[in-house]
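Sorry to interrupt, but I need a hand with the structure work. It will help me judge whether the discrete encoding reads sensibly. Write everything out right here, beneath this request:
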Amino acid sequence: MCFLRFLAQARSTLGRHLADASPVAWAAATDVTGRKLHLVMGNESCDLDSAVSAVTLAFVYAQRHREHDYVPILNIPRRDYPLKTEVGHLFVKCGIAEPVLLFRDDIPREVVQDVNVILVDHHVSPLAPNVTEILDHRPLEDSSPSFKKLPTLCQLDIDASVGSCASLVAQRYFAEDQPRSTGVAQLLHATIVLDTINFAPAAKRYGPKDEAMVQKLESELKYGVAQRSSLFDELVAARADISKLTLTEVLRKDMKVLQTDRQVVPLAGMPILVRDFVEKSGAEKAVREFGVESNLLVILGMYVSPADGQVQRDLALISLSGQSQFVERVRQALMESNEPKLELRPHEVDTRFMGGCFLRQHNVQATRKHILPIVKRALLEWEADHGCDCDEVYFFKEKPQLGLS
């Protein structure tokens, strides 16, 4: 079966297991065919790496293990898909239309009762008891309570040395002679090029596996190395295209949330510098809408120069409730971090926008996956010092819709 036909049939494949998505029918008719349903899920930010890893790995496994069914799930509500501009751009380029895709809110709560889950581009999930395999390139969080709930036989491929989870999927793709798909190869190739910042030495966002996989993909596609630059520029432009988004949607475009019983801290990643964002008309209104009911907002900005590919990063800490001590606690943790050292300094031109703290990040190699654990530790330390007895932090964009309470 070709890749595009596989995606077009994913909904009907899911429907056979959901028995028309009826909870009553689902409870009465699970596993009637003896085929097991496997959901292949990316993370809650649904960036290009996450989305591509989910759809390509599901296809590869579906062709190799035909006794079971594999369905890719984009781990966001369908309404948020237009915010993922680089995902939509590459998918359309490869012939993938939005209607054939399955999203988190397409899955009834009942489905989680009797399915296997494969996680790509993340390894901490409320679905841990159902997880059978993980492919990820984030630093291991083996102390997380949900990570400890993984089944004993769960297969782990967690390699922080690679710049893109798509490289791990590409390894699976090349592990056997079949299937072969131009569409799959194009998606994996483009994603690795973007995630590694086109193998820019200054960014240091790649490892030997990324290089080996992109070379094998280029050999299969008959691409030249020179094509990487134009492809990278195209994807960066698509990611930075916020012309059709409101400022609130720009903040939500690539968002994660740190949440405990007493704190909700959104972390927004933007394709422009925060310092430039706050100069836009309506920025304060957008920030207030984005951070409603939150004590602290963490906004991460990144700008990639179209001229030379140079990366700039900055961040902002803003408290809508005026908790200056809380902001200072997190700022201090970020400034003092040595693993990695973020090299944060004030912007050359100071701003008093909403009383926030704005810092330029001179270590451009450090990404949100490095910053998020620092904020997490500061959050837990703050709660411990102020009498909060909660010791668990969940990471998700909004309340999950997969049978979770």
Remarks:
- The radius of gyration is 21 Å.
- Residues 389-405 have pLDDT under 50 and may be disordered.
- The first strand starts at residue 37 and ends at 41.
- The first helix runs from residue 3 to 8.
